[in-house]
Amino acid sequence: MYQGCKKYIPFHPISLPDRQWPDKVIDKPPIWCSVDLRDGNQALVDPMNLEEKLLFFQTLVDIGFKEIEVGFPSASETEYEILRTLIEKNFIPDDVTIQVLVQAREHLIRKTFEAIRGAKNVIVHFYNSTSTLQRKVVFKTDMQGVINIAVEGAKLIKKLTDEETAKSGINIRYEYSPESFSGTEIENSILICEKVMEVLEPTPEHKLILNLPNTVELATPNCYADQIEYFSRHIKNRDSIILSIHPHNDRGTAIAATELGIMAGAERVEGTLFGNGERTGNADIMVTAMNMYSQGVDPGLDFSHISDIRRMYEKCTKMKVHERHPYAGDLVFTAFSGSHQDAISKGEKYMASGATQYWEVPYLPIDPADVGRQYEPIIRINSQSGKGGAAFVLEQSFGFELPKAMHPEFGALVKNACDKAGRELKAEEVYEIFRKNYIDVHAPYNLKKYRLHDAGEGEVGTQVRFEGVIRFGHEDHIIGGTGNGPISAFFNALRSVGITDYQFVTYRENAISSGADSQAVSYIHLTAPDGSPAFGVGIDNNISLASIKGIICAINRAEQKKKGEMPV
Ligand code: KIV
Ligand code: ZN
């Protein structure tokens, strides 16, 4: 069935048995160059208009990019005009170098030099394709023919640069890409780059950027890393070049290729935000940078407001960021499984305890707050969330710290609701279930008035008096009772109207704040007349009244349960 695969020629990796890169660790960021406005833009169904490109450019500057490929000005009038606007309206900060791409062809190079007039710092990036396949089927030329194109292009670029520099003092640097590098014999790649170097005469002070594109990702990322290391070790005058990489994502491993490429000696990376670019895209610079960040390496780019960046990106490109996209996707800080939720909860408590200075939370490789994401949407509830999951949401999103004994009952209520809805529940929906089942429970006993006051010293110490009005059976009843604490006073008051069958087991309290207000929440555990546990919740500004409300709630819930009336 899969005999069709036989038509593909397997990639032939180069031989590099003494490769060094596998033992290298990335401990500093490369020079980042965004190619969003060129490679990314050329791959859009609707390329960006002027306004969108300007907005995108400004965002790239804000993120911290110092090298930005702004377009292909010789390719179209629109591209030309956008570049002119950036220059003429002074949108380019002095510490940012714009990069322009051009094929190594005379009329295109001349047009490009017209387009960059008036800019301060420019990288003129020229390229021609060098791969075996392109030589055979596109250019129908040998390697010497391809070298001639690059050398002629380099000569013209050098001449025009000398003229422009003399005229305006513009700072022009050069970049050359042997396009389709990864499909080119490695010795030929080195040869053509050295021929270009002979023309441009880079020095350690004025380096040439040699950019080695994985134009079409043809093999596993280790093969690309071998090519990069081999090139880095064999190119002449290594200290006069900046070795740049430009991985594409045809096999879905562009980020891996970028990381291994850096380990193999690359000092500069070209890529895009969210990996937009031709076909399957370019390497995703945001993910590469945040991967470094998660290893304790400052990438030099600021993604602390990732959702704003994403919104800008989606607006300008009309592309969508996938829900699972690392660091930026809607679901990447979400845990569905109960055991994950539990582990995250424990990790957060561990962090809050101050026992560590590092980020040590299971299942969350970075602190969502570092990319401007919030804890609130981290956990959403589905029927597999486990009994602790629902309680976790209440605690995380609303501050209710349900005692462990309540978890199974509340978890079952939430699971039922999930099953009924046939989908996951949002945090607000989990709260709604809690509210209906534990807070808004005022029947059959409705405590309408209540007051606690000191009742002086009794035999066992200070006495407390409860007085109030409770409505049941369509009538209001005045109740009163004294005890050595608010809870026993209230139980005694209930006895005065015949409510005698409930036993107090335990309670727990915590404070929740909404705005400037702080309220006490009391979780009450009673034993019902049939011996089953009865839980209730009370909220009040006064902690004692919160407990009293919790008791009446627990009794109401048990009574309703007896009649099969509990809401879900
Ligand atoms: O992918 C590629 O090879 C390119 C070059 C023009 C650098 O985009
Ligand atoms: Zn590209």
Can you walk through the features of this model?
The chain is α/β, with parallel strands linked by helices and 568 residues long. It folds into 3 domains: 29-317, Aldolase class I (TIM Barrel, Alpha-Beta Barrel), CATH 3.20.20; 338-435, no CATH class; 446-562, Double Stranded RNA Binding Domain (2-Layer Sandwich). It is 39% helix and 21% strand. The protein has 17 helices and 14 strands. Helix 9 links the parallel strand 7 (241-247) and strand 8. 41% of the residues are buried. The chain binds 3-methyl-2-oxobutanoic acid and zinc ion. Residues 39, 101, 127, 177, 179, 211, 213, 215, 246, 248 line the site of 3-methyl-2-oxobutanoic acid (KIV).
Main features:
21% strand, 3 domains, binds 3-methyl-2-oxobutanoic acid, alpha/beta, 17 helices, elongated, TIM Barrel, 568 residues, binds zinc ion, Double Stranded RNA Binding Domain, 14 strands, eight-stranded parallel β-barrel, three-stranded antiparallel sheet, single chain
In summary, what is this structure?
The chain has 17 helices and 14 strands.
Topology (SSEs and partners):
Layout: E1 31-34, H1 36-42, H2 50-63, E2 67-71, H3 77-88, E3 97-103, H4 106-115, E4 121-129, H5 132-139, H6 143-168, E5 171-179, H7 186-200, E6 208-214, H8 221-234, E7 241-247, H9 254-263, E8 268-271, H10 285-293, H11 306-317, H12 338-352, H13 387-398, H14 407-421, H15 427-439, E9 446-458, E10 461-472, E11 475-483, H16 486-495, E12 503-514, E13 517-527, E14 533-540, H17 543-562
Parallel strand pairs: 1-2, 1-8, 2-3, 3-4, 4-5, 5-6, 6-7, 7-8
Antiparallel strand pairs: 9-10, 10-11, 12-13, 13-14
Helix pairs in contact: 2-11, 4-6, 6-7, 7-8, 8-9, 12-13, 13-14, 13-15
Bound molecules: 3-methyl-2-oxobutanoic acid and zinc ion (ZN).
